UniProtKB/TrEMBL annotation:
Keywords of this entry: Membrane, Transmembrane, Transmembrane helix
Highest taxon listed in the record's lineage: Bacteria
Classification via InterPro entries: Put_HupE_UreJ
Transmembrane segment boundaries: 20-37, 42-65, 71-89, 110-129, 149-169, 176-193
Name of this chain's protein: HupE / UreJ protein
Pfam families: HupE_UreJ_2 (PF13795)
Keyword Transmembrane helix annotated: yes
C-alpha cells in the first residue's frame, strides 16, 4: 500500500507540476468551451481522454508499445494546438430562442485519440521512475490514479474560473473561449517552435 500511495503522489505531482505544464494546457484546451453547468459533457470528454492515456500508459510501461520520446514531446504540444484551434469554431446560439449550443461529437473521439499520445508521455516518466523494478502493477495503478486525481482538480478549477468569469463577471462566453483558447494556442505554438525535433526537421537552428 505504501508503494501504491508513493506512486499515486508521483502521478498527482507529475500532472499538476507547473514546470511540465503541457498536460495542464491540454486539459485547459478541452475544457475551454465549458462551465460548471456543462459538467456532464465535461465528464464524458475527460473520461474519453482518460481512457486514451490509460491504454497507452499501461501498454508502454509494460513494454508492449515503444515510441521515440522525441516524437512524443513534439506531438503533445501539437495536440494542444489543434484542440485550442478548434475551440475558435465553437458555435453559440444567435439569440435566446435558438437551440442550445452545439457540442460536436468529434470532440470525444479526438480527446480519446489525443489521450493515447499523452499516455505515451506519462509512460516515459513512469518508466524512468521504475528503473529495473520487476513488479510494476502497483506503481502503474497508483501512478494512474494520481494522474486522475490531479486531472479532476485541474478540470474543477478551470470550470469554476469559467463560471465566475461568465456568470458573475458577465464576460461574454464567446470572448472567454476565444481569449483562453488564444493564450493556450500561443503557448502550444511556442512549445512546438522551441522543440528540438521540430527545429531539426524544419532546418531551424537547434537551441543550445
Amino acid at each position: 500500500m505504501s508503494e501504491f500511495l508513493a506512486y499515486l503522489q508521483l502521478g498527482f505531482s507529475h500532472i499538476t507540476d507547473s514546470n511540465g505544464y503541457d498536460h495542464i494546457l491540454f486539459i485547459m484546451a478541452i475544457c475551454a468551451v465549458y462551465t460548471l453547468v456543462d459538467w456532464k459533457k465535461v465528464v464524458i470528454l475527460v473520461t474519453a481522454f482518460t481512457a486514451g492515456h490509460s491504454i497507452t500508459l499501461a501498454l508502454s510501461t509494460l513494454g508492449y508499445v515503444n515510441v521515440n520520446a522525441d516524437w512524443i514531446e513534439l506531438l503533445i504540444p501539437v495536440t494542444i494546438l489543434i484542440t485550442a484551434f478548434l475551440n475558435f469554431f465553437h458555435s453559440m446560439p444567435k439569440n435566446s430562442y435558438a437551440p442550445k449550443e452545439k457540442h460536436p461529437a468529434f470532440r470525444y473521439p479526438l480527446a480519446l485519440g489525443f489521450g493515447l499520445i499523452h499516455g505515451l508521455g506519462f509512460s516515459n516518466y513512469l518508466r524512468a521512475l521504475l528503473g529495473q523494478e520487476a513488479d510494476i502493477f502497483n506503481p502503474l495503478l497508483g501512478f494512474n490514479v494520481g494522474l486522475e486525481l490531479g486531472q479532476l482538480i485541474i478540470v474543477f478549477i478551470i470550470l469554476v474560473i469559467a463560471f465566475a468569469m461568465i456568470e458573475l463577471l458577465r464576460v461574454q462566453k464567446l470572448s472567454w473561449i476565444q481569449v483562453l483558447s488564444g493564450i493556450i494556442f500561443g503557448m502550444a505554438l511556442s512549445l512546438i517552435l522551441n522543440n528540438e525535433l521540430f527545429r531539426t526537421l524544419t532546418g531551424m537552428p537547434v537551441n543550445s
